[in-house]
Amino acid sequence: MNITVKLIQKSAFKYVCILFVAIISSGFIDKGYQKTNGDPLIEKEVSLKIVNKFSVKGNIKLMTLKMRIPITKKNKQQVNSLNFSIQPDSIYSREDNTYAVFRFHDVKESFKLEITGDITIYNMINTQNEDTNVNLAKYLMPEKFIECNNRDIKNAAKQVKGKNDIETVINTFEFVDSSVKYKKNESIGAVEVLESGEGKCTDFSDLFVAMLRANKIPAKTVHGIVVDARDKNPLHQWSEVYLQKQGWVRFDPTFRSAIYKVDNHYEMNLKNTYIETGEGRNDKEMEGHAVTFNYKTDSNGGEVKRKISFEVVSKQ
User: Fold this and answer.
1) CA–CA separation, 49 vs 114, rounded Å?
2) CA gap 53, 307 in Å, rounded
3) What is the structure's pLDDT at 256?
4) Tens of pLDDT along 207-221?
5) Which whole-number Å values give the CA distances from 125 to 98, 142, 145, 164, 186, in the listed order?
6) Domains identified in the chain and CATH numbers
7) Tens of pLDDT along 85-119?
């Protein structure tokens, strides 16, 4: 199958991209970001509430719930408080993710589990790389859903390769944005989304990361929650790219990021709406899910239905 990659390169956008490339390649970029209306926006206070409602019928011998939870990450977010209406049996970390595990025994009545917190989220790009000790090998390898060694992915990546890494990143971002239409479905992976031209946030990120890895640029997927989301389900997936002079930089190919002029330089407008809960496309602990839940009944049988809801809003 031959795939021809067509980039939408409007002259004005291309001109801005070239200027942005020159600035970020030189290692200079302002830490401040701005909203569309121009108001300063560097940090934001956010309240988080996650409610799991369990409707129980019969006698349940054991119920187990596991989920990723947000932790403080330098230059990304500060978890000021995180409270559980029912304390987890364990909280543990593996690599860059932290998990809470709840076990409920001999359950006979419906109940709910609430998780609430106050989090400060930041929106910035480092002016110098603070992640120089990172082992980048795993962020260049193919994996399930991120098939960077696939022939079609490699051909597409080759056609958007720029003169340097940031130019390649911008070209790839523009290609994914212009080539993929949003559609809610089951995750299909980079190869299939390249062919079909449609997918949800997971698919946008998979294709973006796969094409960058095919061009030998370290990239990874990030999981989290969108603040002030219009959708009832604010769970989201985006990407991060490793740049030599800035370290890890967030890119969200699902929600188009604009490049705009501020005084005498250019910046990328990444909205300050992200609570990170973890990273890694194929998180073995979660078996590919945001939450894992299972239960066992006793000899008399039983049934549990779980419903999750979110309240994630900025305080200012």
Assistant:
1) 7
2) 5
3) 66
4) 999 999 999 999 999
5) 24, 27, 28, 19, 32
6) 11-38+127-277 (3.10.620.30), 43-121+283-314 (2.60.40.2250)
7) 999 999 999 988 999 999 999 999 999 999 999 99
Bridge partners for 112 per DSSP: 53
pLDDT one-digit tens code per residue, 135-170? 899 999 999 999 999 999 999 999 999 998 888 998
